[in-house]
Fold this protein.
Amino acid sequence: MKALSFCEQFCPEKIEFNKLGKWLGDGSDGEVFLTDKPNIVIKFCILYNNINEVNKQYWGNTAPLLNYLISNPIDIFARVYAHEYMGTFPQDFRDVVLYSYTMEKLEDISEAEKKVFHTILSHEDRGIVKNYSIKEVQEILQGLSLGLDFDENKVIFFYKNLKKSNINHADIHPRNIMKDKEGNFKMIDFDRAQLNGE
């Protein structure tokens, strides 16, 4: 991922390099780093397309969602503290929008928990959409509990609230689920999400 290197190239004055810590990981939309605050991380993000499309996506979907999450923290989504538009820049035969947001630092889920969420929420590699009822999920979890270690009540709470949320995440899979220090599951990676009805 080249999000930070693009930021360094196009808008270095917007990055507080002395506050950046260790690289934690990346995805198709950005890179996450520790900050000088132990419970906060920063994600540098990038959108590729022509100038009309990237600006439409950022100002139409991403910025309103991040603003909403800042003003209305939701238990099952990572807490977002701030975001910054860093600019739209030409790159080769396309344009890029660069932006960043800070959010709470979360922990990885276990391998067992990844298997649970893969079973009840996603088959991201096969394009299958799963829409189980709460009763069906409870039955699935009872079977999975015979061989996997996880907190069934916290999985149900997360699943139930995710299904009734007014946010369409659009990229739900175990890689985008983490947990806080109390073991509560939360979604991360808001770059392809939007408020329902937007």
Summary: The longest strand covers residues 80-91. The chain has a mean pLDDT of 91.
